[in-house]
Automatic annotation (TrEMBL):
InterPro entries: SAM-dependent_MTases_sf (IPR029063), UbiE/COQ5_MeTrFase (IPR004033). It comes from the Bacteria. Methyltransferase required for the conversion of demethylmenaquinol (DMKH2) to menaquinol (MKH2). Its EC number is 2.1.1.163. The keyword Transferase applies. It is an enzyme of class 2 (transferase). Keywords: Menaquinone biosynthesis, Methyltransferase, S-adenosyl-L-methionine, Transferase. This is Demethylmenaquinone methyltransferase. It comes from Microbacterium amylolyticum. Belongs to the class I-like SAM-binding methyltransferase superfamily. MenG/UbiE family. PANTHER family: 2-METHOXY-6-POLYPRENYL-1,4-BENZOQUINOL METHYLASE, MITOCHONDRIAL (PTHR43591:SF24), METHYLTRANSFERASE (PTHR43591). GO terms for molecular function: 2-methoxy-6-polyprenyl-1,4-benzoquinol methyltransferase activity; demethylmenaquinone methyltransferase activity.
């Protein structure tokens, strides 16, 4: 394996994309180990929040290995699984390429290659945090959403309980790196991911970013005591 040029919190798109290319093959296994299987529950909650309907067109941005995309498609939606990492998309195609209603696209979140008002719903799980201009990505998601359409963002967040937050930080700083190095394919990648979680704004600030971009009916729901949060909104009709 070629050595990883570790991204920093400037989040250069080429470096971040290259990092995900390198961890793609063991990405799902590593996530399952690091979250003790909670990632499956979070993914189910995301699918329920998106509430895909037969015939709807849905964009799953930062689709990664496309597990959420496949979940949307299995409910009858037409799903575009988009990611800026070709390595991640390759894993998605290998595992879910035969799922009816799925298509795949390489895409930069800050300059989406889709027409205005072309999706009934847009979703992004654990990807907004890795974009170098997240506010621009939120605006792009608004642009490609139909009037009345909806957004769901699932992202790592800040546990509101002070004691639990301290335990969570201890796990991220001391335990998670060891798990990532044991199970994953590149421990340095998960060092970056831990730093990006620590640097990410709390739930109320991300909700405000959505409102500033023009999303309405914005709200969020904490999952697993705020380790992650589901953010939702609508585009004005």
């Amino acid at each position: 394996m070629t050595s990883l040029q570790r991204p920093d919190l400037g989040k250069d798109p080429q470096q971040v994309s290259g990092m995900f290319d390198q961890v793609a093959k063991r990405y799902d296994l590593t996530n399952m180990a690091m979250t003790f299987g909670l990632d499956a529950l979070w993914r189910e909650a995301t699918t329920n929040a998106v509430a895909p309907q037969p015939g709807e067109r849905i964009l799953d941005l930062a689709a990664g290995t496309c597990r959420s995309s496949a979940s949307f498609a299995r409910r009858g939606a037409e799903v575009v699984a988009a990611d800026f990492s070709p390595g991640m998309l390759a894993e998605g195609k290998k595992n879910f390429g035969d799922v009816r209603g799925m298509s795949f696209a390489e895409a930069d979140a800050t300059n989406l290659p889709f027409d205005d008002e072309s999706f009934d719903a847009v979703s992004m799980s654990y990807g907004l945090r890795n974009v170098n201009d997240p506010k621009k990505a939120i605006a792009e998601l608004l642009r490609v959403t139909k009037p009345g359409g909806r957004i769901v963002i699932n992202e790592f967040s800040t546990p509101p309980n002070r004691v639990f937050r301290g335990l969570y930080r201890f796990y991220n700083d001391r335990i998670l790196p060891a798990v990532a190095r044991t199970v994953g394919s590149n421990g340095e990648a998960y060092d970056y991911l831990n730093e990006s979680i620590r640097d990410w704004p709390a739930q109320h600030e991300l909700a405000e970013w959505l409102r500033e971009a023009g999303w309405t009916d914005v709200g969020y729901k904490n999952l697993s005591m705020g380790i992650v949060a589901l953010h939702r909104g609508r585009k004005a009709a």
